[in-house]
Design goal:
This protein is mostly beta strands. The chain has three helices and 15 strands. Helix 1 packs parallel to helix 3 and helix 2 packs across helix 3. The longest helix is centred in the first third of the chain and has 15 residues.
């Protein structure tokens, strides 16, 4: 079963670094140099001894997918957090190594699909191997939902994006409830005077494609007769177009 494991790690490396596709030597080096070493014990095979690496029993050791992919990337992102600090959003991240890193672009979204740049932080540890901490404060977060991510760019033009973090800043206190059922789903906007506001729902597939956009009252029924069953997201916007809440919807015919 070593073959499928190694092939899978090679695929992960090429997903993270498409420029390495076809560069067999570089991919082998990344897996070999970041493997977890395993040493043979007596009785030894061939000319092996207790310190032989590679050896005839374990080769270069156990492949480490995460270490190999992190080594392939210009930046090893150890941690990325977001928290509310008064009326601002405080973002912090830590890198474990940086190589050929130009800068981080901080991006924000109200719906998790459309992103805007809100800040740019230069990398500080080119060709470094120790931990480096960064911080950024968004002084004007949106009311309601705020999604944040990092878009890291290296000097060769390659970029990679961090996991997404979400914060919610108090708006008018509205929330969305979606109750799934077979063939239909019931939705309701929860909040004072919700019945007096014009709402818009945006229904998106798991890959982010917008399936439907409809203007609705504060409560009603949803149906997707021309879409396959599956998990969808329902984004609620107020009359100003501001994203207020998002809920998951399991569509079952």
């Amino acid at each position: 079963m070593a073959g499928p494991h190694v092939a899978g790690v090679a695929a992960l490396i090429m997903c993270a670094r498409p420029d390495l596709i076809g560069n067999v030597d570089a991919i082998e080096d990344l897996m070999r140099n970041n493997a977890v070493a395993r040493f043979a014990t007596a009785p030894f095979c061939g000319a092996d001894n207790a310190n032989s690496l590679p050896n005839n029993v374990y080769g270069w050791g156990r492949v480490d997918a995460l270490a190999a992919v992190n080594a392939a990337l210009p930046v090893e992102l150890l941690e990325f957090t977001a928290k509310i600090a008064g009326k601002t959003a405080q973002l912090n991240w830590i890198t474990g190594s940086e190589n050929d890193c130009s800068h981080f672009t901080v991006q924000r979204s109200s719906d998790g699909f459309t992103w805007f740049d809100v800040g740019k932080i230069p990398c500080r540890g080119n060709f470094s191997s120790g931990e480096i901490t960064y911080e950024f404060r968004d002084l004007n977060p949106l009311k309601g939902l705020n999604y944040y991510r990092l878009d890291q760019l290296d000097y060769s033009g390659e970029s990679s994006k961090s996991p997404v973090r979400a914060l919610s800043f108090a708006s008018s206190g509205y929330s969305l409830r979606v109750t799934s059922g077979k063939g239909l789903a019931y939705f309701e906007v929860i909040g004072e005077d919700a019945d007096e506001i014009s709402w818009r729902l945006e229904i998106r597939a798991a890959d982010g494609r917008e399936i439907q956009r409809i203007s609705v009252a504060a409560k009603g029924w949803l149906q997707l007769p021309n879409s396959p069953p599956g998990l969808y997201s329902v984004l609620l916007r107020d009359s100003y177009g501001q994203a207020v809440a998002v809920e998951k919807w399991l569509w079952v015919e």
